[in-house]
């Protein structure tokens, strides 16, 4: 075969690799499904309360700060020498056994508490729906939690592909309802938010408002728990071309996130006054609940819990993949230290049982400290998502090719702002 034929074959292979496949669409929607969950229902309140200028700045920052950070984490997972290595194994390969164990533990501690939060949230939301909308008697909490969590774990038992497929299917009704809601609010738009437009921001000042709002933005669009599973799956499918394909899928997914979510945020903010948003924040309820009370609409009273249930289900499944990865990693590393090993199927069964029992206990108990647990997980996620991949670019030979880009400095700065903002919120 001469060189011209080889070049043609290489070109054909390249073209087939870069062609968009059904699995790429599934993952694009799966990434969206993990990121866009219950947090989005609080985003209009947190993002809009500072006034118009901070909201516009956040809308402009949303795509670059989420895309570059998640692309960095994806590249980090793909930089491992073993094709099927997940994030816990790549960390050990690059930073050593000790650091591998520590970061795997942090990874698990960042994601697992959020899984507990979602187990409580879905139990509360369904219970509220049964009593308020269906006008039925509230079932025993432990039984309701068990039924809901067994249902979610049944999807999990069918494997990673089924989780992603279910999440990508749930995205369609969620986006449709979110967009219809945003359009339905248009007749209620007012100019109230334009009355006090200034670069000083509202109340706290522009810099302070942005500083405290960026962590909210970061975690409303966060889907780091599923990035490792995404990178591993695409590497199996595309081999050496996985990084280019992953970047394309991430770009489309983030574009979809930013356009749909920011349209929803702007529509909510334009239909309420800054005083309304401050009242919603004080009441500590989602924007849907506040809108239902504010406009006194029965339709919203029915829609709010249904949207919340779909949002929580999607996010639970996406976070489960990350929590399982972290928990499996901890067990594998612990057994390896004693010269033992366990099959992946047995490990997944044990992890599923642990997750079911622990989420059921917490959902039945219904503790009030879960908000604090979720907030404490925030700085760890920010370190893993923003700082670790950027550190690896400077330290790991396999990632050195990504050094020198302005986006790296941007990711580090956003990461530091997010971490400091979260810590300030905790102390404050």
From TrEMBL:
Subcellular location: Cell inner membrane
Keyword terms, alphabetized: Amino-acid transport, Cell inner membrane, Cell membrane, Kinase, Membrane, Serine/threonine-protein kinase, Symport, Transferase, Transmembrane, Transmembrane helix, Transport
GO cellular component: plasma membrane
Presence of the UniProt keyword Endoplasmic reticulum in the record: no
UniProt keyword annotation of Nucleotide-binding present: no
Domain of life where this protein originates: Bacteria
Catalytic activity: L-serine(in) + H(+)(in) = L-serine(out) + H(+)(out)
One Gene Ontology term of the molecular function aspect: symporter activity
Transmembrane segments: 26-45, 51-69, 102-122, 142-159, 166-186, 206-233, 254-272, 299-317, 347-363, 369-393, 405-427
InterPro entries, per the entry: Amino_acid_transport_2 (IPR018227), Hydroxy_aa_transpt (IPR004694)
Its membrane topology: Multi-pass membrane protein
Record PANTHER family: SERINE TRANSPORTER, SERINE TRANSPORTER SDAC
NCBIfam families referenced in this protein's UniProt entry, alphabetically: stp (TIGR00814)
Protein name per its UniProtKB record: Serine/threonine protein kinase
Annotated source species: Winslowiella iniecta
